[in-house]
Write a structure and sequence with these properties.
It is a single chain. It is built from 16 helices and 31 strands. The relative contact order is 0.09. The strands form 7 sheets. Strands 10, 11, 12, 13, 14, 15 and 26 form a 7-stranded mixed beta sheet that branches. A 5-stranded antiparallel beta sheet has the order 7-2-4-5-9, with helices on one face. The protein has a 5-stranded parallel beta sheet with strand order 17-24-18-19-20, with helices on one face. It starts with 5 loop residues before the first strand and ends with a helix. About 10% of the residues have low confidence. By secondary structure, it is of the alpha/beta class. Bound molecules: nicotinamide-adenine-dinucleotide.
Protein backbone atom coordinates (compact mmCIF):
# COMPACT_ATOMS: atom_id res chain seq x y z
CA UNK A 1 0.00 0.00 0.00
CA UNK A 2 1.26 3.50 -0.82
CA UNK A 3 1.18 6.20 1.81
CA UNK A 4 2.11 9.84 1.10
CA UNK A 5 5.58 8.98 2.38
CA UNK A 6 6.17 5.87 0.34
CA UNK A 7 7.04 5.34 -3.28
CA UNK A 8 6.42 2.18 -5.27
CA UNK A 9 9.00 1.36 -7.92
CA UNK A 10 7.56 -0.57 -10.87
CA UNK A 11 8.92 -2.33 -13.95
CA UNK A 12 9.45 0.37 -16.59
CA UNK A 13 8.85 0.04 -20.33
CA UNK A 14 10.42 -3.27 -21.40
CA UNK A 15 9.98 -2.79 -25.11
CA UNK A 16 8.73 -5.83 -26.96
CA UNK A 17 9.43 -8.34 -24.19
CA UNK A 18 6.24 -9.72 -22.62
CA UNK A 19 7.92 -10.54 -19.39
CA UNK A 20 11.36 -10.38 -17.86
CA UNK A 21 13.07 -12.10 -14.98
CA UNK A 22 14.48 -10.65 -11.78
CA UNK A 23 18.17 -11.50 -12.11
CA UNK A 24 19.64 -9.91 -9.00
CA UNK A 25 18.57 -7.78 -6.06
CA UNK A 26 21.18 -5.10 -5.47
CA UNK A 27 19.90 -3.58 -2.23
CA UNK A 28 18.49 -4.99 0.99
CA UNK A 29 15.33 -4.05 2.89
CA UNK A 30 16.20 -1.50 5.57
CA UNK A 31 19.00 -0.05 3.45
CA UNK A 32 19.09 3.67 2.72
CA UNK A 33 19.07 4.21 -1.04
CA UNK A 34 20.06 7.30 -3.00
CA UNK A 35 18.49 8.69 -6.14
CA UNK A 36 19.77 6.62 -9.10
CA UNK A 37 21.22 3.89 -6.91
CA UNK A 38 20.57 0.60 -8.68
CA UNK A 39 17.96 -1.46 -6.86
CA UNK A 40 17.84 -4.62 -8.94
CA UNK A 41 18.69 -6.13 -12.30
CA UNK A 42 16.01 -7.51 -14.59
CA UNK A 43 16.76 -9.44 -17.74
CA UNK A 44 15.13 -10.89 -20.82
CA UNK A 45 16.74 -13.43 -23.14
CA UNK A 46 18.16 -10.48 -25.10
CA UNK A 47 19.33 -7.96 -22.57
CA UNK A 48 19.55 -6.90 -18.97
CA UNK A 49 18.56 -3.66 -17.33
CA UNK A 50 19.42 -2.12 -13.98
CA UNK A 51 16.52 -0.40 -12.28
CA UNK A 52 17.67 2.72 -10.44
CA UNK A 53 15.82 4.25 -7.54
CA UNK A 54 13.94 7.35 -8.64
CA UNK A 55 13.84 8.61 -5.05
CA UNK A 56 15.98 8.82 -1.93
CA UNK A 57 14.80 6.96 1.15
CA UNK A 58 14.83 3.66 2.96
CA UNK A 59 14.04 0.50 1.05
CA UNK A 60 11.09 -1.00 2.89
CA UNK A 61 10.53 -4.24 1.02
CA UNK A 62 10.85 -6.01 -2.28
CA UNK A 63 7.67 -7.33 -3.89
CA UNK A 64 9.76 -9.73 -5.99
CA UNK A 65 12.52 -12.27 -5.48
CA UNK A 66 15.40 -13.36 -7.70
CA UNK A 67 14.11 -15.63 -10.45
CA UNK A 68 10.58 -14.18 -10.47
CA UNK A 69 9.02 -13.54 -13.88
CA UNK A 70 7.50 -10.05 -14.03
CA UNK A 71 5.70 -7.79 -16.50
CA UNK A 72 5.80 -4.11 -17.34
CA UNK A 73 4.18 -2.08 -14.55
CA UNK A 74 4.63 -4.87 -11.95
CA UNK A 75 5.48 -3.66 -8.47
CA UNK A 76 9.16 -4.15 -7.62
CA UNK A 77 9.70 -2.54 -4.25
CA UNK A 78 8.53 0.13 -1.84
CA UNK A 79 10.69 2.96 -0.59
CA UNK A 80 10.01 5.06 2.50
CA UNK A 81 10.78 8.56 1.27
CA UNK A 82 13.27 10.91 2.86
CA UNK A 83 11.88 14.37 3.23
CA UNK A 84 14.08 15.41 0.33
CA UNK A 85 13.33 12.24 -1.61
CA UNK A 86 10.71 13.67 -3.89
CA UNK A 87 12.56 16.92 -4.48
CA UNK A 88 15.60 15.09 -5.71
CA UNK A 89 13.63 12.85 -7.98
CA UNK A 90 14.22 13.02 -11.70
CA UNK A 91 12.36 11.25 -14.46
CA UNK A 92 12.88 7.54 -14.14
CA UNK A 93 11.68 6.50 -17.56
CA UNK A 94 15.00 7.45 -19.10
CA UNK A 95 17.08 6.51 -16.17
CA UNK A 96 16.52 2.78 -16.27
CA UNK A 97 19.81 1.66 -17.76
CA UNK A 98 18.51 -0.45 -20.62
CA UNK A 99 21.09 -2.78 -22.01
CA UNK A 100 19.20 -3.46 -25.19
CA UNK A 101 18.73 0.14 -26.24
CA UNK A 102 21.79 1.04 -28.28
CA UNK A 103 22.85 4.64 -28.79
CA UNK A 104 20.67 6.05 -31.49
CA UNK A 105 17.60 4.34 -30.06
CA UNK A 106 16.10 6.26 -27.18
CA UNK A 107 14.36 4.29 -24.47
CA UNK A 108 10.60 4.54 -24.71
CA UNK A 109 8.78 6.63 -22.15
CA UNK A 110 7.38 4.80 -19.16
CA UNK A 111 3.72 4.05 -19.31
CA UNK A 112 1.14 2.70 -16.88
CA UNK A 113 0.93 3.21 -13.16
CA UNK A 114 4.66 3.67 -12.70
CA UNK A 115 4.64 6.59 -15.08
CA UNK A 116 1.84 8.26 -13.17
CA UNK A 117 3.78 7.99 -9.93
CA UNK A 118 6.92 9.23 -11.62
CA UNK A 119 5.14 12.16 -13.18
CA UNK A 120 4.12 13.40 -9.75
CA UNK A 121 7.69 13.33 -8.56
CA UNK A 122 8.99 14.84 -11.75
CA UNK A 123 6.73 17.86 -11.47
CA UNK A 124 8.41 18.68 -8.21
CA UNK A 125 11.85 18.86 -9.82
CA UNK A 126 11.32 20.73 -13.05
CA UNK A 127 13.51 23.81 -13.01
CA UNK A 128 15.48 22.73 -9.94
CA UNK A 129 19.24 22.93 -9.98
CA UNK A 130 21.44 20.07 -8.87
CA UNK A 131 24.83 21.49 -7.91
CA UNK A 132 27.83 19.38 -8.80
CA UNK A 133 31.30 20.82 -8.88
CA UNK A 134 32.49 18.79 -11.88
CA UNK A 135 30.15 18.04 -14.75
CA UNK A 136 31.15 15.53 -17.43
CA UNK A 137 29.03 15.67 -20.57
CA UNK A 138 29.21 12.37 -22.47
CA UNK A 139 29.68 8.85 -21.09
CA UNK A 140 32.00 7.33 -23.70
CA UNK A 141 35.55 6.12 -22.95
CA UNK A 142 36.77 9.71 -22.54
CA UNK A 143 33.85 10.84 -20.40
CA UNK A 144 33.63 7.87 -18.06
CA UNK A 145 37.42 7.77 -17.60
CA UNK A 146 37.36 11.46 -16.69
CA UNK A 147 34.42 11.01 -14.32
CA UNK A 148 35.95 8.00 -12.57
CA UNK A 149 39.37 9.63 -12.20
CA UNK A 150 37.83 12.83 -10.85
CA UNK A 151 35.74 10.87 -8.36
CA UNK A 152 38.83 8.92 -7.29
CA UNK A 153 40.50 12.26 -6.64
CA UNK A 154 37.66 13.25 -4.34
CA UNK A 155 35.61 15.52 -6.61
CA UNK A 156 31.85 15.38 -6.65
CA UNK A 157 30.99 14.31 -10.19
CA UNK A 158 27.84 14.41 -12.30
CA UNK A 159 28.08 12.43 -15.52
CA UNK A 160 25.41 13.26 -18.09
CA UNK A 161 24.85 10.78 -20.90
CA UNK A 162 22.01 10.91 -23.38
CA UNK A 163 21.74 7.14 -23.83
CA UNK A 164 20.69 4.76 -21.09
CA UNK A 165 23.99 2.88 -21.17
CA UNK A 166 27.46 4.23 -20.49
CA UNK A 167 30.26 3.41 -22.89
CA UNK A 168 29.52 5.65 -25.85
CA UNK A 169 30.07 4.67 -29.45
CA UNK A 170 33.22 2.63 -28.75
CA UNK A 171 31.66 0.25 -26.31
CA UNK A 172 28.09 0.09 -27.57
CA UNK A 173 28.27 0.43 -31.34
CA UNK A 174 31.93 0.74 -32.29
CA UNK A 175 35.24 -0.79 -31.27
CA UNK A 176 33.92 -3.50 -28.96
CA UNK A 177 31.04 -5.04 -30.96
CA UNK A 178 33.02 -4.78 -34.19
CA UNK A 179 35.90 -6.64 -32.56
CA UNK A 180 33.52 -9.39 -31.43
CA UNK A 181 32.49 -9.83 -35.07
CA UNK A 182 36.08 -9.51 -36.31
CA UNK A 183 37.09 -12.33 -33.98
CA UNK A 184 34.49 -14.58 -35.58
CA UNK A 185 35.75 -13.46 -38.98
CA UNK A 186 39.35 -14.30 -38.04
CA UNK A 187 38.42 -17.80 -36.86
CA UNK A 188 36.39 -18.42 -40.02
CA UNK A 189 39.31 -17.27 -42.14
CA UNK A 190 41.84 -19.40 -40.26
CA UNK A 191 39.62 -22.47 -40.60
CA UNK A 192 39.26 -21.82 -44.32
CA UNK A 193 43.01 -21.29 -44.72
CA UNK A 194 43.76 -24.64 -43.09
CA UNK A 195 42.16 -26.26 -46.12
CA UNK A 196 45.50 -26.36 -47.94
CA UNK A 197 47.16 -28.10 -44.96
CA UNK A 198 45.12 -31.24 -45.03
CA UNK A 199 42.54 -30.19 -42.47
CA UNK A 200 39.14 -29.61 -44.03
CA UNK A 201 36.18 -28.15 -42.22
CA UNK A 202 32.73 -28.33 -43.70
CA UNK A 203 31.04 -25.16 -44.89
CA UNK A 204 30.04 -23.05 -41.88
CA UNK A 205 26.40 -22.53 -40.95
CA UNK A 206 25.41 -19.09 -39.74
CA UNK A 207 22.73 -18.40 -37.16
CA UNK A 208 22.45 -14.63 -37.54
CA UNK A 209 20.37 -14.19 -34.40
CA UNK A 210 22.97 -15.96 -32.27
CA UNK A 211 25.83 -14.12 -33.95
CA UNK A 212 24.23 -10.79 -33.09
CA UNK A 213 23.36 -12.01 -29.59
CA UNK A 214 27.00 -12.95 -28.96
CA UNK A 215 28.10 -9.46 -29.98
CA UNK A 216 25.44 -7.92 -27.70
CA UNK A 217 26.52 -10.18 -24.84
CA UNK A 218 30.09 -8.87 -25.07
CA UNK A 219 28.80 -5.29 -25.02
CA UNK A 220 26.36 -6.04 -22.18
CA UNK A 221 29.12 -7.46 -19.97
CA UNK A 222 31.17 -4.30 -20.32
CA UNK A 223 28.34 -1.78 -19.90
CA UNK A 224 27.13 -3.56 -16.78
CA UNK A 225 30.66 -3.29 -15.42
CA UNK A 226 30.72 0.45 -16.11
CA UNK A 227 27.44 1.05 -14.31
CA UNK A 228 28.92 -0.78 -11.30
CA UNK A 229 32.12 1.26 -11.41
CA UNK A 230 30.12 4.52 -11.52
CA UNK A 231 28.04 3.36 -8.56
CA UNK A 232 31.06 2.32 -6.55
CA UNK A 233 32.61 5.76 -7.02
CA UNK A 234 29.36 7.59 -6.27
CA UNK A 235 29.43 9.27 -9.67
CA UNK A 236 25.92 10.61 -10.22
CA UNK A 237 24.81 9.48 -13.67
CA UNK A 238 22.01 11.49 -15.26
CA UNK A 239 20.44 10.17 -18.44
CA UNK A 240 19.23 12.73 -20.96
CA UNK A 241 20.37 15.17 -23.60
CA UNK A 242 22.44 17.93 -22.02
CA UNK A 243 22.57 21.48 -23.36
CA UNK A 244 24.39 24.38 -21.69
CA UNK A 245 22.19 27.29 -20.76
CA UNK A 246 24.86 29.41 -19.09
CA UNK A 247 28.52 29.43 -18.20
CA UNK A 248 27.86 27.23 -15.14
CA UNK A 249 24.55 25.61 -15.95
CA UNK A 250 23.44 22.63 -18.03
CA UNK A 251 19.87 21.71 -18.84
CA UNK A 252 19.24 18.00 -19.19
CA UNK A 253 16.24 17.06 -21.26
CA UNK A 254 14.78 13.67 -20.54
CA UNK A 255 11.62 12.58 -22.26
CA UNK A 256 9.41 13.95 -19.53
CA UNK A 257 11.16 16.87 -18.00
CA UNK A 258 14.09 19.27 -18.10
CA UNK A 259 16.31 19.56 -15.07
CA UNK A 260 19.07 22.07 -14.53
CA UNK A 261 22.45 21.18 -13.16
CA UNK A 262 24.79 23.82 -11.79
CA UNK A 263 28.49 23.05 -12.01
CA UNK A 264 31.82 24.61 -11.25
CA UNK A 265 33.91 23.08 -14.02
CA UNK A 266 32.90 20.89 -16.94
CA UNK A 267 34.55 18.34 -19.21
CA UNK A 268 33.03 18.07 -22.69
CA UNK A 269 33.24 14.53 -24.02
CA UNK A 270 30.41 14.34 -26.55
CA UNK A 271 32.37 12.43 -29.20
CA UNK A 272 31.56 12.15 -32.88
CA UNK A 273 29.08 10.59 -35.29
CA UNK A 274 29.36 9.11 -38.78
CA UNK A 275 29.59 11.70 -41.53
CA UNK A 276 26.73 11.66 -44.02
CA UNK A 277 26.95 12.50 -47.70
CA UNK A 278 24.58 15.27 -48.77
CA UNK A 279 21.68 14.22 -50.93
CA UNK A 280 21.95 10.49 -50.12
CA UNK A 281 18.59 8.73 -49.95
CA UNK A 282 17.18 7.69 -46.62
CA UNK A 283 16.92 3.90 -46.83
CA UNK A 284 17.48 1.26 -44.15
CA UNK A 285 19.63 -0.71 -46.59
CA UNK A 286 22.16 2.14 -46.49
CA UNK A 287 24.21 1.35 -43.41
CA UNK A 288 26.53 3.35 -41.20
CA UNK A 289 29.09 2.03 -38.73
CA UNK A 290 26.29 1.38 -36.21
CA UNK A 291 23.72 -0.37 -38.36
CA UNK A 292 26.41 -2.36 -40.19
CA UNK A 293 26.99 -4.26 -36.93
CA UNK A 294 23.50 -5.79 -37.16
CA UNK A 295 24.72 -8.26 -39.74
CA UNK A 296 22.05 -10.56 -41.14
CA UNK A 297 21.64 -13.13 -43.86
CA UNK A 298 21.46 -14.44 -46.40
CA UNK A 299 24.72 -12.91 -47.59
CA UNK A 300 24.33 -10.65 -50.58
CA UNK A 301 26.29 -7.91 -52.26
CA UNK A 302 27.72 -5.07 -50.18
CA UNK A 303 29.12 -1.77 -51.44
CA UNK A 304 31.54 -0.14 -49.00
CA UNK A 305 31.96 3.57 -49.63
CA UNK A 306 35.20 4.76 -48.02
CA UNK A 307 38.41 2.74 -47.77
CA UNK A 308 39.36 3.96 -44.30
CA UNK A 309 39.51 1.95 -41.09
CA UNK A 310 35.76 1.52 -40.54
CA UNK A 311 35.01 0.62 -44.15
CA UNK A 312 37.75 -2.00 -44.32
CA UNK A 313 37.09 -3.51 -40.89
CA UNK A 314 33.46 -4.04 -41.82
CA UNK A 315 34.47 -5.30 -45.27
CA UNK A 316 36.63 -7.89 -43.44
CA UNK A 317 33.62 -9.02 -41.38
CA UNK A 318 31.17 -9.19 -44.27
CA UNK A 319 33.66 -11.06 -46.50
CA UNK A 320 34.18 -13.71 -43.82
CA UNK A 321 30.41 -14.18 -43.54
CA UNK A 322 30.12 -14.85 -47.25
CA UNK A 323 29.13 -11.45 -48.64
CA UNK A 324 30.40 -10.24 -52.00
CA UNK A 325 32.03 -6.91 -51.26
CA UNK A 326 33.02 -3.96 -53.42
CA UNK A 327 35.05 -1.09 -51.93
CA UNK A 328 35.20 2.38 -53.48
CA UNK A 329 37.58 5.01 -52.18
CA UNK A 330 37.88 8.62 -53.28
CA UNK A 331 41.65 8.85 -52.84
CA UNK A 332 44.31 6.85 -54.67
CA UNK A 333 44.97 4.68 -51.62
CA UNK A 334 43.34 2.70 -48.83
CA UNK A 335 43.80 3.52 -45.13
CA UNK A 336 45.12 7.03 -45.58
CA UNK A 337 47.32 7.78 -42.59
CA UNK A 338 49.29 4.53 -42.73
CA UNK A 339 52.40 4.24 -44.91
CA UNK A 340 51.73 2.68 -48.30
CA UNK A 341 54.13 -0.27 -47.78
CA UNK A 342 52.06 -1.32 -44.75
CA UNK A 343 48.77 -1.07 -46.65
CA UNK A 344 50.03 -3.13 -49.61
CA UNK A 345 49.58 -6.62 -48.11
CA UNK A 346 46.03 -5.71 -46.99
CA UNK A 347 45.17 -4.29 -50.38
CA UNK A 348 46.47 -7.42 -52.11
CA UNK A 349 44.36 -9.66 -49.93
CA UNK A 350 41.27 -7.49 -50.33
CA UNK A 351 41.66 -7.42 -54.11
CA UNK A 352 41.71 -11.23 -54.11
CA UNK A 353 38.70 -11.55 -51.80
CA UNK A 354 36.47 -8.67 -52.96
CA UNK A 355 34.43 -8.31 -56.12
CA UNK A 356 36.20 -5.01 -56.61
CA UNK A 357 38.47 -2.49 -54.91
CA UNK A 358 38.17 0.78 -56.80
CA UNK A 359 40.43 3.70 -55.96
CA UNK A 360 39.74 7.29 -57.05
CA UNK A 361 36.09 6.42 -57.45
CA UNK A 362 33.06 8.07 -55.84
CA UNK A 363 29.40 7.18 -55.82
CA UNK A 364 27.52 9.60 -58.07
CA UNK A 365 24.02 8.33 -57.38
CA UNK A 366 22.16 5.63 -55.49
CA UNK A 367 18.83 4.46 -56.87
CA UNK A 368 16.88 2.79 -54.07
CA UNK A 369 13.62 2.17 -55.91
CA UNK A 370 14.15 -1.48 -56.77
CA UNK A 371 14.76 -4.67 -54.79
CA UNK A 372 18.43 -3.85 -54.93
CA UNK A 373 20.14 -0.47 -54.64
CA UNK A 374 21.70 0.53 -57.94
CA UNK A 375 24.89 2.55 -57.56
CA UNK A 376 26.31 4.77 -60.29
CA UNK A 377 29.93 5.79 -59.97
CA UNK A 378 32.20 8.57 -61.12
CA UNK A 379 35.95 8.79 -61.52
CA UNK A 380 38.43 7.51 -64.10
CA UNK A 381 38.33 3.92 -62.87
CA UNK A 382 34.56 4.01 -62.26
CA UNK A 383 32.76 0.76 -63.05
CA UNK A 384 29.38 0.55 -64.76
CA UNK A 385 26.28 0.95 -62.58
CA UNK A 386 26.03 -2.04 -60.18
CA UNK A 387 23.26 -3.47 -57.97
CA UNK A 388 23.81 -4.05 -54.23
CA UNK A 389 21.77 -5.42 -51.32
CA UNK A 390 23.42 -3.11 -48.80
CA UNK A 391 25.60 -0.02 -48.98
CA UNK A 392 27.90 0.95 -46.09
CA UNK A 393 28.82 4.61 -45.85
CA UNK A 394 32.13 5.03 -43.98
CA UNK A 395 33.57 8.34 -45.09
CA UNK A 396 34.73 9.78 -41.78
CA UNK A 397 33.19 11.24 -38.64
CA UNK A 398 31.92 14.63 -37.48
CA UNK A 399 32.17 16.11 -33.97
CA UNK A 400 29.06 16.26 -31.77
CA UNK A 401 29.48 19.94 -31.03
CA UNK A 402 26.17 21.28 -32.28
CA UNK A 403 23.09 21.30 -30.13
CA UNK A 404 24.94 21.24 -26.79
CA UNK A 405 24.81 24.99 -26.17
CA UNK A 406 28.49 25.82 -26.71
CA UNK A 407 27.43 29.42 -27.45
CA UNK A 408 25.91 29.76 -23.99
CA UNK A 409 29.23 28.53 -22.58
CA UNK A 410 31.27 30.82 -24.81
CA UNK A 411 33.31 27.84 -26.07
CA UNK A 412 34.75 28.25 -29.56
CA UNK A 413 34.99 25.58 -32.26
CA UNK A 414 37.09 25.43 -35.42
CA UNK A 415 35.71 25.42 -38.96
CA UNK A 416 34.83 21.70 -38.75
CA UNK A 417 33.18 22.00 -35.37
CA UNK A 418 36.02 20.52 -33.28
CA UNK A 419 36.87 22.22 -29.98
CA UNK A 420 40.50 23.42 -29.84
CA UNK A 421 42.19 22.74 -26.49
CA UNK A 422 45.54 23.51 -24.86
CA UNK A 423 47.91 20.93 -23.39
CA UNK A 424 45.83 20.87 -20.20
CA UNK A 425 42.77 20.19 -22.37
CA UNK A 426 41.15 23.51 -21.51
CA UNK A 427 39.00 25.16 -24.16
CA UNK A 428 39.06 28.93 -24.60
CA UNK A 429 37.00 29.04 -21.37
CA UNK A 430 39.39 28.03 -18.56
CA UNK A 431 36.75 26.17 -16.54
CA UNK A 432 35.64 24.10 -19.55
CA UNK A 433 37.75 21.15 -20.72
CA UNK A 434 37.23 19.12 -23.89
CA UNK A 435 38.52 15.63 -24.64
CA UNK A 436 38.24 12.81 -27.18
CA UNK A 437 36.83 12.96 -30.70
CA UNK A 438 35.34 16.38 -29.97
CA UNK A 439 38.89 17.78 -29.96
CA UNK A 440 39.84 16.44 -33.42
CA UNK A 441 42.14 13.81 -34.89
CA UNK A 442 43.15 11.16 -34.20
CA UNK A 443 39.65 9.96 -33.31
CA UNK A 444 40.68 7.08 -31.09
CA UNK A 445 39.16 5.74 -27.89
CA UNK A 446 42.52 5.22 -26.18
CA UNK A 447 43.47 8.85 -26.84
CA UNK A 448 40.15 9.93 -25.30
CA UNK A 449 40.66 7.86 -22.13
CA UNK A 450 44.11 9.31 -21.55
CA UNK A 451 42.86 12.83 -22.21
CA UNK A 452 39.96 12.21 -19.83
CA UNK A 453 42.30 11.30 -16.99
CA UNK A 454 44.50 14.33 -17.60
CA UNK A 455 41.51 16.70 -17.72
CA UNK A 456 40.16 15.24 -14.47
CA UNK A 457 43.51 15.63 -12.76
CA UNK A 458 43.83 19.23 -13.92
CA UNK A 459 40.26 19.93 -12.79
CA UNK A 460 41.24 18.55 -9.39
CA UNK A 461 44.13 20.99 -9.19
CA UNK A 462 46.91 18.80 -10.63
CA UNK A 463 49.64 20.11 -12.86
CA UNK A 464 49.22 17.65 -15.72
CA UNK A 465 49.52 18.00 -19.47
CA UNK A 466 48.46 15.75 -22.32
CA UNK A 467 51.66 15.45 -24.31
CA UNK A 468 52.02 11.88 -25.57
CA UNK A 469 55.03 11.19 -27.74
CA UNK A 470 53.12 8.59 -29.70
CA UNK A 471 49.55 7.30 -30.01
CA UNK A 472 49.13 3.93 -31.72
CA UNK A 473 46.59 3.43 -34.51
CA UNK A 474 45.28 0.00 -35.45
CA UNK A 475 43.14 -1.19 -38.33
CA UNK A 476 41.72 -4.55 -37.21
CA UNK A 477 41.54 -5.81 -40.76
CA UNK A 478 42.98 -9.05 -42.12
CA UNK A 479 45.93 -8.57 -42.00
CA UNK A 480 45.95 -5.98 -39.25
CA UNK A 481 47.85 -2.74 -39.78
CA UNK A 482 49.29 -0.87 -36.80
CA UNK A 483 51.46 2.18 -36.61
CA UNK A 484 52.75 4.52 -33.92
CA UNK A 485 54.75 7.74 -33.81
CA UNK A 486 56.12 9.25 -36.99
CA UNK A 487 55.24 7.60 -40.30
CA UNK A 488 57.57 7.80 -43.29
CA UNK A 489 55.12 10.16 -44.92
CA UNK A 490 54.95 12.40 -41.82
CA UNK A 491 58.74 12.48 -41.75
CA UNK A 492 58.95 13.50 -45.41
CA UNK A 493 56.35 16.26 -44.87
CA UNK A 494 57.97 17.57 -41.69
CA UNK A 495 61.55 17.26 -42.93
CA UNK A 496 62.48 14.78 -40.18
CA UNK A 497 65.61 12.79 -41.02
CA UNK A 498 65.46 9.11 -40.12
CA UNK A 499 66.93 5.70 -40.76
CA UNK A 500 64.63 2.84 -41.59
CA UNK A 501 64.84 -0.81 -40.49
CA UNK A 502 62.60 -3.42 -42.12
CA UNK A 503 61.99 -7.04 -41.26
CA UNK A 504 59.84 -8.94 -43.76
CA UNK A 505 57.87 -11.72 -42.15
CA UNK A 506 58.82 -14.11 -44.95
CA UNK A 507 61.96 -14.67 -42.84
CA UNK A 508 60.07 -15.28 -39.58
CA UNK A 509 59.68 -18.91 -38.51
CA UNK A 510 56.49 -18.11 -36.66
CA UNK A 511 54.95 -16.27 -39.63
CA UNK A 512 55.82 -19.21 -41.90
CA UNK A 513 54.27 -21.58 -39.36
CA UNK A 514 50.96 -19.74 -39.41
CA UNK A 515 51.07 -19.28 -43.17
CA UNK A 516 51.14 -15.47 -43.02
CA UNK A 517 54.42 -14.40 -44.56
CA UNK A 518 53.04 -11.23 -46.14
CA UNK A 519 53.67 -9.29 -42.90
CA UNK A 520 56.26 -6.59 -42.38
CA UNK A 521 57.75 -4.89 -39.31
CA UNK A 522 59.27 -1.45 -39.81
CA UNK A 523 61.11 0.81 -37.39
CA UNK A 524 62.15 4.43 -37.96
CA UNK A 525 65.09 5.81 -35.97
CA UNK A 526 66.02 9.51 -35.69
CA UNK A 527 69.11 10.24 -37.78
CA UNK A 528 70.68 12.45 -35.11
CA UNK A 529 70.46 10.47 -31.85
CA UNK A 530 69.26 7.06 -33.04
CA UNK A 531 66.07 7.03 -30.92
CA UNK A 532 63.05 5.16 -32.20
CA UNK A 533 60.57 7.74 -33.50
CA UNK A 534 58.06 5.61 -35.40
CA UNK A 535 57.04 2.06 -36.17
CA UNK A 536 54.61 0.27 -38.45
CA UNK A 537 53.57 -3.37 -38.55
CA UNK A 538 51.30 -5.25 -40.91
CA UNK A 539 50.30 -8.86 -40.29
CA UNK A 540 48.13 -10.88 -37.91
CA UNK A 541 48.23 -9.47 -34.36
CA UNK A 542 49.93 -6.24 -35.49
CA UNK A 543 47.59 -4.42 -33.10
CA UNK A 544 49.11 -6.32 -30.16
CA UNK A 545 52.68 -6.13 -31.44
CA UNK A 546 52.65 -2.34 -31.76
CA UNK A 547 52.60 -1.93 -27.95
CA UNK A 548 56.32 -2.69 -27.72
CA UNK A 549 57.45 0.01 -30.18
CA UNK A 550 55.00 2.45 -28.53
CA UNK A 551 56.69 1.87 -25.17
CA UNK A 552 60.12 2.03 -26.80
CA UNK A 553 59.29 5.45 -28.28
CA UNK A 554 58.01 6.77 -24.94
CA UNK A 555 61.16 5.50 -23.20
CA UNK A 556 63.48 6.98 -25.83
CA UNK A 557 64.89 3.55 -26.75
CA UNK A 558 67.30 3.11 -29.66
CA UNK A 559 67.94 0.16 -31.96
CA UNK A 560 70.37 -1.47 -29.52
CA UNK A 561 67.90 -1.29 -26.66
CA UNK A 562 65.31 -3.12 -28.73
CA UNK A 563 67.68 -5.51 -30.52
CA UNK A 564 69.43 -6.57 -27.30
CA UNK A 565 66.16 -7.20 -25.50
CA UNK A 566 65.69 -10.94 -25.67
CA UNK A 567 62.42 -11.82 -27.40
CA UNK A 568 60.96 -15.31 -27.17
CA UNK A 569 61.49 -17.57 -30.17
CA UNK A 570 59.57 -18.28 -32.29
CA UNK A 571 57.21 -15.32 -31.95
CA UNK A 572 55.93 -12.57 -34.19
CA UNK A 573 57.29 -10.08 -31.64
CA UNK A 574 60.79 -11.17 -32.67
CA UNK A 575 60.26 -9.40 -35.98
CA UNK A 576 60.47 -6.08 -34.14
CA UNK A 577 63.74 -7.04 -32.45
CA UNK A 578 65.14 -8.45 -35.69
CA UNK A 579 64.31 -5.22 -37.52
CA UNK A 580 66.14 -3.31 -34.78
CA UNK A 581 69.14 -5.65 -34.98
P1 LIG B 1 38.49 7.52 -42.26
O1 LIG B 1 38.73 8.97 -42.33
O2 LIG B 1 39.47 6.63 -41.63
O3 LIG B 1 38.20 6.94 -43.72
C1 LIG B 1 37.21 7.45 -44.56
C2 LIG B 1 37.62 7.20 -45.98
O4 LIG B 1 36.55 7.57 -46.82
C3 LIG B 1 38.84 8.02 -46.40
O5 LIG B 1 39.76 7.16 -46.98
C4 LIG B 1 38.25 9.01 -47.40
O6 LIG B 1 39.15 9.35 -48.42
C5 LIG B 1 37.08 8.22 -47.96
N1 LIG B 1 36.01 9.02 -48.55
C6 LIG B 1 35.56 10.22 -48.12
N2 LIG B 1 34.53 10.61 -48.91
C7 LIG B 1 34.33 9.63 -49.82
C8 LIG B 1 33.42 9.44 -50.90
N3 LIG B 1 32.49 10.35 -51.17
N4 LIG B 1 33.49 8.31 -51.63
C9 LIG B 1 34.43 7.38 -51.34
N5 LIG B 1 35.32 7.50 -50.35
C10 LIG B 1 35.27 8.61 -49.59
O7 LIG B 1 37.05 7.40 -41.58
P2 LIG B 1 36.28 6.13 -41.03
O8 LIG B 1 36.81 4.86 -41.57
O9 LIG B 1 34.85 6.47 -41.25
O10 LIG B 1 36.64 6.18 -39.51
C11 LIG B 1 36.33 7.35 -38.77
C12 LIG B 1 37.30 7.58 -37.66
O11 LIG B 1 37.11 6.65 -36.64
C13 LIG B 1 38.72 7.55 -38.10
O12 LIG B 1 39.35 8.70 -37.63
C14 LIG B 1 39.28 6.35 -37.43
O13 LIG B 1 40.60 6.58 -36.94
C15 LIG B 1 38.35 6.11 -36.27
N6 LIG B 1 38.21 4.67 -36.06
C16 LIG B 1 39.25 3.99 -35.53
C17 LIG B 1 39.15 2.64 -35.39
C18 LIG B 1 40.28 1.86 -34.80
O14 LIG B 1 41.06 2.43 -34.06
N7 LIG B 1 40.40 0.58 -35.12
C19 LIG B 1 38.04 1.95 -35.82
C20 LIG B 1 37.01 2.67 -36.36
C21 LIG B 1 37.13 4.04 -36.49
Amino acid sequence: MTTPNTFIVRVPDIGEAEQVEVAELLAAPGERVAVEQSLLVIESDKASMEIPSPVAGVLQSFAVAEGDAIREGSELCTIQLDEAGVDETVATSDKAKRSEAAPGKAASPATGPAAAEQATSVAATAGATAPGPLLVLGGGPGGYSAAFRAADLGLEVVLVERYPRLGGVCLNVGCIPSKALLHMAAVLEEARALGGSGVEFSKPDFDWTRIRARKDEVVGTLTKGLAGLARARKVRVVTGHGRFTGSHELEVQTEDVAQRIAFGQAILATGSRPAALPGWPDDPRILDSTTALEIEGPPGRLLVVGGGIIGLEMATVYLAFGWQVTVVELLDRLVPGADRDLVKPLEKRLRAACEGVRLEVAVAKLDTRGKQIVARFEGEAAPEALPFDRVLLAVGRRPNSEDIGLDALGVQTDAQGFVPVDAQLRSNQPHIFAIGDLTGAPLLAHRATHQGKVAAEVAAGGKRRFEPTAIPSVAYTDPEIAWVGVTEEDAAQQGIEFRKALFPWSASGRAIGIGRTEGLSKLLFAEDDGRLIGAGIVGPHAGELIAEPALAIELGADAEDIGLTIHAHPTLSETVALAAE
